[in-house]
Amino acid sequence: MALLEVTQLHAAYGQTRVLHGISFAMEAGSITTLLGANGAGKTTTLRALCAMVKTQGDIRFAGERIDGRATEDIVRLGIAHVPDGRGTFVNLTTEENLRLGAYTRRDGEAVEADLERVYGYFPRLKERRAQQAGTLSGGEQQMLAVSRGLMLRPKLMLLDEPSFGLAPLVVRELFAILRAVNERERVSLLVVEQNAALALELADHAYLIETGRVVLSGTADEIKRNDAVRSSYLGY
Amino acid sequence: MEAFLHQVLAGLATGGIYASLALALVMIYQATHLVNFAQGEMAMFSTYIAWSLIDAGLPYWAAFALTVVIAFVLGVVIERVVIRPVENAPVLAVVVVFIALLVILNSVTGWIYTYTIKTFPSPFPEQPLFGIKYMSSHEMGAIGVTLAVLLLLYAFFRFTPLGLAMRAAAQNPESSRLVGIRVGWMLALGWGLAAAVGSVAGMMVAPIVYLDPNMMGGILLYAFAAALVGGVDNPGGAVFGGFLVGVLENVLGAFVIGNELKLAVALVLIIGVLVVRPSGFFGKVYVTRV
Fold first, then answer.
1. Whether A75 and B289 lie within 8 Å, measured CB to CB
2. Candidate CATH numbers 3.40.630.10, 3.90.550.10, 3.40.50.300, 3.40.50.150; the one for domain A1-78+154-236
3. CA angle A147, A73, B181 (to 5 degrees)
4. Closest approach of chain A CAs to the CA of B95, in angstroms?
5. How far is CA B34 from CA A124, B27, B232, B283, in A?
6. ipTM at complex level
7. CA B89 to CA B98: how far, in whole Å?
8. Is the CB of B177 less than 8 angstroms away from the CB of A83?
9. Residue A104 near residue A75 (C-beta atoms within 8 A)
10. Neighbours of B171 (CB within 10 A)
11. Are A190 and A156 in contact, with CB atoms under 8 Å apart?
């Protein structure tokens, strides 16, 4: 059974329809990426999964329908959304941001352990644990956003443009950690990226979205070898 | 000199009350970016409830505790029933709702309890505490109670997961939902807490100004001034502003402009701050977040 199964998903902001019947699925433990240009509907798809935009269609998580549920309840099923723009609580400290990630958990001791584990992945955050999160650099805030998601102990993580605005070195570091999280903790990742080359290196499955529809899907290797993708998105 | 000291200390006592009410205003403001004009009347109504409970024979502190709980519940109910439906309405609509709430609470109280001025008991003894002659025991007691409330609030927001969630919900509702915080309920809780803090302010000020449905009108103005002086988005600043306004009002009233013009101090402060420094003294610095 697929971990996440989306069928004929429509979404609109007011009168403006953005998704025109998107369908895709991903297996537990996999890394799937949604590729596409600006305005294709990638971010909206992620927002739709968390009920942050009005939708029509069928969304199933571990076999259960989740469309129509409140964002807060979807989070409790184990879906962590690392949003576009990082969603930092700028006036709170780094550590308070992380603790908020574990807000729905009631296993206090495990939360403390996870805090240390996350600091293990991102030692920089530990150095800045008492610092106001708004004063962190862009890269650090992205690490914080990923870490806040991890503090939920999610089954599925939705990552919206994790590479956005980061230096290449920081991106490489971040993506290595994402891979490690996927392998060691069996967290499935759904990654939205504009940087197709980067995303295809990380992912094992990919969907190409154009103007609110899936136009191509396959394993990351197949997509990488597709001529249209190569010329339009990979640039070689 | 002695008279001056006396005025300063008395100013601190009423200042603490302004600080509490200002804090209640700031708590709502942080979450909604609106100033609750009915905050004073909510406190007044709660004080009448305390009066009824004491009148019915309850010991003072039992009535005090029960009133705080009732005020909390009332605050939550008001948010859920009255404020929630206008959550996404234009600012002006919400302001009208606040003003309506003010008028309704005022009239309902007058209708139930009449507009006759009542005395409200102080829980503190007649004789000055610890033999200090510059302050009445009620003034000292009021400062103590106020400081206890402020400390409790600070600890709640600073050290408990729920307090953290409430701060998060106030400043970033979208991210809060994404970590599973029920933002709507956090708002309601905020209203409850603000109402509870206001009820303490009401019970502490009632023995000084006496109990009548209009008792909070002037006090709310001082609280506005306090919140503005401190920066309306800064809880620590609001508390500081409260004490500052209390002392200024008392000292200026006694020595400079006379008692009749006391309220003008608050109004001048409000206008002065809005003109010179709209963000207040601590408006942009996030040092203490109570």
1. no
2. 3.40.50.300
3. 60
4. 27
5. 38, 10, 10, 16
6. 0.91
7. 13
8. no
9. yes
10. 18
11. yes
- pLDDT for B284 equals 56
Classify B71 as helix, strand or coil.
helix
Q: Where are the beta strands (DSSP E) in chain A?
A: 4-13, 16-26, 31-35, 55-61, 64-65, 79-82, 156-160, 188-193, 205-210, 213-219
Q: Are B281 and B231 in contact (CB under 8 A)?
A: yes
pLDDT in tens, A9-44: 999 988 888 999 999 999 999 999 999 888 888 999
Contact at CB, B177 and A76, closer than 8 angstroms: no
Q: Which of A81, A90, A132 sits opposite B178 (nearest CB)?
A: A81
φ/ψ of A189, rounded to 5, equals -120, 135
The model's pTM is 0.86
Q: How far apart are CA B16 and CA B238, in angstroms?
A: 11
Alpha-carbon distance B219 to nearest alpha carbon in chain A (angstroms):
31
Q: Which of B157, B179, B181, B185 to probe the A interface (max A CBs under 10 A)?
A: B179
Q: How many residues does chain B have?
A: 290
A224/chain B closest Cα distance in angstroms: 32
Please, where are the H alpha helices in A23-93?
Answer: 42-49, 71-76
Domain ranges of chain B: 2-116+133-213
The answer to whether A106 and A140 are in contact (CB under 8 A) is: no
Which residues in chain A are closer than 8 Å to B179, comparing Cβ atoms? 75, 100-101, 103-104, 148, 152
d(CA A139, CA A86) in angstroms, rounded, equals 10
Q: How far apart are CA A30 and CA A182, in angstroms?
A: 8
Domain ranges of chain A: 1-78+154-236, 88-153
Amino acid in position B102: L
Is the confidence at residue B286, as pLDDT, over 50? Answer: no
* pLDDT at residue B87, as a whole number: 83
